Amino acid sequence: MARRLLLLPLLSACAALPTPPAGAGALYAETRPAMSTVVTIAVAAPPTPEIVAAVDAAFAVFARVDEAMNEWRPGSPLAALNGAAGSGRPVPLPGDLCQVLRAGRDGAERTGGLFDPTWAALRSVWRFGDGEPPRLPSDAEVAKACPLVSWRELEIVPLATPASDAPCTALLRRAGMQVGLGGIAKGWGVDRAVASLRRAGLRDFTVQAGGDLYAAGTRGGRPWRVGVRDPRGAPDEPFAWLTVSDAAFSTSGDSERFFVLEGRRYHHLIDTGTCRPATASRQASVLAPTALEAEILGKAVFVLGGQEGLALVARSGAAAVIVTAANEVVASPGLSVRLEVARPPSP
């Protein structure tokens, strides 16, 4: 079976850490809870009424994403799609959810299934941080659920025109299938918030939702400086730094949702070739043109690890910094000259 990657629910990601250069000037920043994490929007300017209104409008994007794409919200469009799995009945969906589903399906195809939006069939098999004692699923449980992770059996049909924002119908062909958008919905929300801020005339700002960050323009004429988290260190302890401007930076790692049994770490990033936690990496950070693309590639790179992961991002026109399972740091050639490694990652 080809290896595929899924992302089990993540409350807070391994965050990139934007920090200002010395003498960077005014900054208006707001942090609010959204999408089971915290979202921070920072603008390199004083808080004028126009800028405050633009930031409020950008936060509204995340409220809409949570409304349409949260499978846990009763009556949400995504919950309706999951509830109809195997019925053969197409479910009408709003245009924004259709866009994300198409992006997820396209990402699965482009990564050879390393990323798969139908991961959620395994969420009852592998459980992390639900208040219950750590438990390994049986081989029978894994074998029963694993075939239900199959992006090819997610069918999406436009209702009218093929426009990117058109509504659609979708269906999951097999009973027990489930779609979970935790792996890409935050990235899509970041991209939409970025577009909203640009429409308001802003050029120098950051938008961060958990481990997904977009840095636009500069602060004080210099690119934003982003910290790469130490996967075994404290959340605010980066081991390296990278300058970012007009690009997204997304981090996927094994340090947030996990348990340890008999000295082995089991985490939420699952290689569906085995339907068990991926073993090649501790962390993968991807620099890409959009937060959505960075999320898709980040999950795929994590499961591949090392040189295979770097080759994947290179084919996609992106770049990555990977902390391997052996705690070695490997980076794309284009990032090596920009990456400031302050110290090795913690063992």
Describe the protein in words.
An eight-stranded antiparallel sheet has the order 3-4-8-9-12-17-18-19. The protein has a four-stranded antiparallel sheet with strand order 2-10-11-20, with no helix packed on it. The protein is α+β, with helices and mostly antiparallel strands and 347 residues long. Helix 5 (185-199) packs antiparallel against helix 6 and helix 6 runs antiparallel to helix 7. Residues 1-15 have low confidence and may be disordered. The two termini are 32 Å apart. The chain is built from eight helices and 20 strands. Strand 13 (258-261) and strand 14 form a beta hairpin.
Major sheet details: 8 strands, antiparallel
Question: Which structural class is indicated by helix and strand composition?
Answer: alpha+beta
Rg calculated over all Cα atoms:
20 Å
- What share of residues are in beta strands? 25-35%
Please specify the SSE layout and strand pairing.
Layout: E1 5-7, E2 17-19, E3 28-34, E4 37-43, H1 49-69, H2 77-83, E5 91-93, H3 95-110, H4 139-145, E6 154-158, E7 168-172, H5 185-199, E8 205-209, E9 212-216, E10 224-229, E11 238-244, E12 247-253, E13 258-261, E14 264-267, E15 269-271, E16 276-277, E17 281-288, H6 291-304, H7 306-315, E18 319-324, E19 329-331, H8 333-336, E20 340-341
Helix pairs in contact: 1-5, 3-6, 5-6, 6-7
Give a concise summary.
Strand 3 (28-34) and strand 4 (37-43) form a beta hairpin.
